[in-house]
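PROTEIN DESIGN WORKSHEET
SECTION A - STRUCTURE
LENGTH: 337
TOKENS:
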């Protein structure tokens, strides 16, 4: 391992890493060489030098072109990471020189955005008004892939969904309580406490099967002695979920409470008073293990972990139960003469 590291540090060139990325994208040595403004013989020699450093081939030739093998995929992934980090370095240097103050790319699951990400961004921006901030809202699994590629500086989500959670540093922040919701036009339910069985005639809008919140709903259905609906509408989009719920009184869904509250205040959703038996899932700050955060990213993490500094931000009110249906007024009976 030490010899390999010394060889890489002594001989590896950025041009070779760029060639690997181009080969992975183009599947052709001729096209990759053209993209790199190299002759094909020069590209072939550079690839041979790389394979010599790793003492193994990195690509296999097939009808569809040059396909990276297992070692090739590994090297290419890190090549992309190095290239992305260098690109980010150049952008940060250019922005600092121009007075714009650098950039920060954050990934966050939707349940963490109202109570944590938004207040922390407001605090950060107040102290660093020239900082450029990008926020990506997606599933933890997809954002971890972007974190691996260097496209995100950090993720507010769950590291446990990764194939290898040990390669990340995870700092828990809070639980993510969930609420069962329907569209605002849904008729009020008459009971103080509603069971999932009372929603049997509703169609569910639910998260895709690979997401943790889908598994949680599946567990709740199992605890209630119910089967998962066989005709759900599957989406990971909050906008799509809310739009669907508003469009039909026959639809019901499960949303993070922090997200649901925003739409309840706007009279777009109603909460269904279902008591869930599963414990709330925890989310936290996920970063690359061994990676170094930029000063803005470090400050952002500090703000996330200082709840007293976020208490000044307006927090949504507690959920109110759906109003009971008022009984019809009694009709007085006429006396028969």
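SECTION B - SEQUENCE
RESIDUE ASSIGNMENT:
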């Amino acid at each position: 391992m030490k010899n390999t590291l010394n060889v890489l540090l002594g001989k590896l060139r950025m041009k070779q890493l760029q060639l690997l990325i181009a080969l992975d994208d183009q599947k052709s040595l001729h096209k990759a060489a053209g993209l790199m403004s190299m002759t094909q013989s020069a590209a072939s020699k550079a690839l041979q030098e790389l394979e010599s450093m790793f003492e193994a081939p990195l690509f296999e030739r097939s009808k569809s072109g040059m396909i990276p093998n297992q070692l090739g995929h590994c090297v290419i992934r890190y090549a992309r990471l190095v290239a992305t980090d260098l690109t980010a370095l150049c952008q940060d240097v250019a922005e600092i020189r121009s007075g714009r103050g650098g950039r920060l790319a954050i990934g966050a699951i939707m349940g963490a955005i109202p109570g944590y990400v938004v207040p922390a961004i407001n605090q950060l921006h107040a102290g660093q008004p020239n900082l450029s901030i990008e926020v990506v809202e997606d599933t933890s699994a997809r954002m971890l892939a972007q974190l691996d590629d260097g496209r995100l500086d950090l993720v507010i989500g769950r590291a446990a969904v990764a194939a290898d959670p040990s390669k990340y540093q995870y700092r828990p922040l809070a639980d993510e309580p969930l609420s069962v919701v329907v569209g605002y036009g849904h008729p009020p339910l008459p009971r103080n406490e509603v069971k999932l069985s009372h929603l049997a005639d509703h169609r569910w809008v639910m998260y895709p099967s690979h997401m943790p919140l889908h598994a949680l709903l599946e567990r709740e259905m199992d605890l209630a002695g119910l089967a998962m609906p066989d005709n759900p509408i599957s989406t990971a989009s909050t906008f799509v979920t809310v739009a669907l719920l508003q469009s039909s009184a026959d639809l019901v869904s499960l949303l993070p409470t922090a997200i649901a509250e925003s739409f309840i205040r706007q009279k777009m959703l109603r909460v269904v008073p279902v008591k869930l038996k599963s414990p709330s899932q925890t989310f936290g700050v996920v970063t690359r293990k061994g990676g170094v955060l930029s000063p803005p990213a470090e400050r952002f993490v500090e703000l996330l972990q200082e709840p007293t500094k976020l208490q000044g931000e307006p927090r949504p009110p507690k959920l109110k139960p759906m109003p009971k249906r008022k009984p019809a007024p009694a009709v007085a009976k006429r006396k028969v003469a």
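SECTION C - NOTES
The two ends are 107 Å apart (CA to CA).
Residues 99-175+282-310 form a domain with the D-Maltodextrin-Binding Protein; domain 2 fold (CATH 3.40.190.10).
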